[in-house]
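Can anyone check this?
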Amino acid sequence: MTTRRRLVAIAVWTATALALALGFAAYQRPGLAVDLANRLWACF
């Protein structure tokens, strides 16, 4: 595996882990999840 390809893989895994961590953190405050759901629903 080349160095560039390895760096891209690390970046992708880091971004994925960060997205999952932020999603988990959002559900620690139920009011935030409800507010986001209401805002999304208002678009339709």
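Reply from J.R.: I decoded it. The chain has a mean pLDDT of 91.
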